[in-house]
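As a next step, the fold was encoded as tokens, giving this record:
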Amino acid sequence: MPKNYLVYDPETGEVVQEIRPKTEQQMRYAAEKQMRTDYKRKSKDFIVCFPEELRKVNRELTLIEAGAAMRLLGFLRWKENGRLIDGGKSLTVKDLAKIFKKGLTATKDILNRLESFDLVSRSREGRANAFFINPRFFQFGGKINSKDFTKLFVVESRNLVNDLSIQEAGLLWKIIPHFNYENYYLCVNPTEKDAKHMSRETLAARIKHDPKTVGKLMSGLNRRGAVLITQVLGTKRYLINPDLMYRKSYEDQTTRNVRGLFEQHRQKLQ
């Protein structure tokens, strides 16, 4: 049995503290508790995505519409009930046109489509409309009332989307519901621990796009470090960067291992 340690006052020689060493189990528990505490401090750093709701609309959205919606997520703010804001002001149609990099007519068409799926809504604010993301799909702040959700890190996703084409951003949006938080791969059954990896062909069928298009856009996400493409027996699999999407309540060794793979990938791309 380990001995206790005594701490003495160097001037008086009196015992001021007795330290009892922790068992290995206690130290492991304390480390996990600290990781959970550290992770909770980052709660304002992620948007909560609800995969089940996204699955309902993903097959109907074009890549451009999904990419436009993905760009809007960068303008969600903490506990603003989904209002899209930049510089403290609500975004206008003209602002959205710049964000989408489209003309006003094309922007209005995209907004009408997103509104038809209840992804976006608008409300009169002075002389212009304010736009909102439906919290049924994405939530930034507040109580989470579902067990099925994925965390999308705000800063990482915003920076990434700024570098992507609108179609690549659209594919990023469409893969969110297929992210498995245990192994970080896109999976056929993403909510299960023993999940089956998703191939390019299966993913293409699920999101209703041509496999060649999916492959090309995935290569773009791979170059940007969002996805790591692996291949087993001639079948491609897609590993997702844990600094982009996450789900667990704290970081574990699996996460660190996956992050290490992406770091190696980043160095190869340089």
About this structure: Confidence is low (pLDDT under 50) at residues 39-43. The chain is about 40% helix and 20% strand.
